[in-house]
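for the recovery benchmark. tokens below, seq after
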């Protein structure tokens, strides 16, 4: 308790004054029992309530301090966990970019060179073209995934964005990861020799980016 000596001094002065006033007022009744009673009365009426008040005040201050300290620890723990997640995401993104990106680039280059080989038949050249487009599309998707891991932002554009005006629109092999890209997905599978049938029902309407991307993935998995 801060200032304990000062508080004890104030109580001692109060006790001395009270005792002195009692002696001056009732000199004839002065006796050890009266002095003891006066001291006990002063102790009960002043010192005990004062100490009790200081105790509860210090307890309340300690409780508030512990609450603030606990809140600060929770915030710091959340920040440390967030930084750890960011570092891990960046590490995964770097590994994916360094390993998969290099391999996909090699596949795209070699299939592009093989596609113009004059010794290939038309069917073989078409199959190689499908492989080249698939590798380029895979590089674009890898770039989006790496950007998502690094920045933590969704790759699909805002709701209502026209796929034709997207940043990758018009780029060879750039995948449209939405309902608008299902036609090219079906066509690529057909060129690869897969028997494919696409059926549509209902009215065309804009979808939220997450639903648009999920619809594309469902068809892709199918």
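predicted aa per position
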């Amino acid at each position: 308790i801060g200032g304990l000596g000062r508080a004890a001094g104030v109580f001692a002065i109060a006790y001395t004054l009270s005792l002195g006033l009692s002696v001056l007022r009732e000199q004839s009744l002065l006796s050890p029992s009266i002095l003891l009673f006066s001291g006990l009365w002063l102790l009960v009426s002043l010192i005990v309530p004062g100490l009790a008040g200081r105790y509860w005040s210090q307890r309340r201050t300690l409780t508030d301090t512990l609450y603030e300290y606990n809140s600060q620890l929770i915030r710091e723990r959340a920040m440390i966990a967030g930084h750890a997640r960011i570092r891990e995401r960046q590490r995964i993104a770097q590994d994916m970019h360094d390993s998969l990106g290099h391999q996909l680039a090699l596949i795209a280059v070699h299939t592009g060179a093989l596609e113009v080989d004059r010794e290939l038949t038309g069917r073989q050249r078409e199959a190689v073209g499908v492989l080249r487009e698939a590798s380029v599309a895979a590089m674009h998707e890898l770039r989006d995934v790496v950007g998502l891991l690094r920045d933590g932002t969704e790759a699909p554009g805002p709701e209502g964005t026209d796929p034709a005006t997207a940043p990758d629109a018009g780029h060879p092999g750039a995948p449209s990861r939405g309902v608008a890209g299902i036609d090219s997905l079906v066509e690529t599978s057909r060129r690869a020799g897969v028997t494919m049938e696409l059926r549509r029902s209902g009215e065309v309407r804009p979808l939220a980016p997450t639903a648009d991307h999920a619809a594309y993935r469902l068809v892709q998995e199918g």
